[in-house]
Specification:
Number of helices: 7
Number of domains: 1
CATH architecture: 3-Layer(aba) Sandwich
Strand content: 25-35%
Order of helices and strands: EHEHEHEHHEHEEEHEEEEEE
Structural class: alpha/beta
Radius of gyration: 17 Å
Length: about 230
């Protein structure tokens, strides 16, 4: 029997910002159904930040996982061999454009796609959320938001930090009105969208009444339809 294909796309928050409750991290690790799951952190979007890696190990060791990470700015391990041993992949936030360019140079995009198809859980925050979609709304450029081609594991355009960064809603609105996109999956901070087999399964709020939305244009009206969800 084929395994379900799961992606947990986190709009913002989590261990990279606070080590307080680890609700979404527990959700991800429990999804694996494996005792002491292997989880690999990919911090490429922050240039393999050592501080970020320390936080990752601190958190996922406490959650009784077997954490590892991949560096792409130092001597690099056998990527395919390592990824194929994982139960969960967690991708950190940062500069999405630079991250994807480095991944493609190393062939990591294809390795991750094969692992996803085999049932390895894909997860991540911000850059690590939008990378799985066809396109993502990114602040990789300093002065303005942009729409970026991503990995296309699941169809659609994704925007993280939807409620926390004031430029996000106007930018998505302009893309819809100008018909650059037909719809957008918008995820608030302290919220995640769980996608199963390529389709939204449920929104997961780990903050105060946070949500994810399917945002579309009906004539000249912007419609934001919240996904069915849970609070944890």
């Amino acid at each position: 029997m084929n395994k379900d294909k799961n992606i947990i796309a986190i709009g913002g928050g989590g261990f990279g910002r606070s080590l307080r409750d680890l609700k979404i991290e527990r959700y991800i690790t429990n999804l694996s159904k494996v005792k002491n799951p292997n989880i690999c952190f990919i911090p490429t979007a922050t240039g393999d930040s050592d501080t970020y890696k320390v936080s990752f190990y601190n958190v996922f060791t406490k959650l009784e996982c077997k954490p590892t990470h991949i560096d792409l700015f130092k001597r690099t391990i056998d990527l395919e061999d390592h990824i194929n041993k994982q139960d969960i992949i967690y991708v950190g936030g940062g500069n999405t454009k630079s991250m994807l360019a480095v991944w493609k140079e190393w062939g990591l995009d294809l390795i991750l796609k094969n692992a996803y198809d085999a049932g390895v859980i894909m997860s991540g925050v911000s850059a690590g959320a939008i990378c799985w979609f066809t396109k993502g709304i990114t602040d990789s450029w300093e002065k303005e938001l942009s729409i970026l081609e991503c990995l296309d594991f699941v169809r659609g355009t994704c925007c993280p930090h939807y409620d926390e960064e004031e430029s996000r809603i106007p930018y998505v609105t302009s893309l819809l009105l100008d018909k650059h996109i037909n719809s957008c999956i918008a995820i608030e901070d302290n919220c995640a969208l769980h996608l199963k087999n390529g389709e939204p399964f449920r929104s997961i709020s780990f903050g105060d009444k946070k949500n994810s939305y399917f945002v579309s244009l009906n004539k000249k009206n912007i419609i934001s339809k919240p996904y069915t969800g849970i609070s944890i």
